[in-house]
Amino acid sequence: MIWLFIILIILASVLLGFVVLVQNPKGGGLSGSVAGFSNQFMGVKQTTDVLEKGTWLFAAIIGVLCLVSSLFISDTAGTGGSGNLEKVPTNQPVKQAPANNAPPPVNVPK
To answer: Which one, 14, 16, 45, 75, has the greatest CB density within 10 A?
Structure first.
C-alpha cells in the first residue's frame, strides 16, 4: 500500500513541477503563444487562472497524500521487509548498566 502512495506522490510532484515551470514568472506563461495560436487558444487571463489553480491543486494533493500515507506506515517499514525485530517483553524489567561503567570496588586487606 505504501508503494501506491509513493508512486502517486512522485507523479503529483512531477506534474506540479511541470505546471510551475510552464508558468512565466512575469505572468505570461502559456498565454503568450501555444503552438502558434497566440491568444486564440484559451485567452490570457483564463490560461493564467488554470495554471494557478493547477499549482494549488497538485500542492494540495501532495500534502494530503503525505499525511494519509503516514497512517499506512507500520513500525517495521524500515527493516528492509524482514520484519524480524527482536522485541523485549514488556512484563520483564530491563537491566540497567552502572552510570560510570566502573568496576565494583575491591576490598583490599590492610
So the answer is: 16
Within 10 A of 64 (CB to CB), how many other CB atoms are there? 11
DSSP 8-state symbol, 39: G
Cα–Cα distance measured from residue 54 to residue 42, given in angstroms and rounded to the nearest whole number:
15
Region label for 65, one of left (φ > 0), alpha (ψ between -120 and 50) or beta (otherwise):
alpha
Task: Return the sign of the alpha-carbon dihedral for residues 76, 82, 88, 90.
Answer: positive
The two counts, helices (H) then strands (E), for the chain are 2, 0
Supply the pLDDT for residue 11.
95
Domain boundaries of the chain, sorted by first residue: 1-16+40-72
Residue 46 identity (one-letter amino acid): Q
Express each pLDDT in 42-83 by its tens digit. 555 566 788 889 999 999 999 999 999 988 887 554 555 555
Looking at residue 27, its pLDDT comes to 54
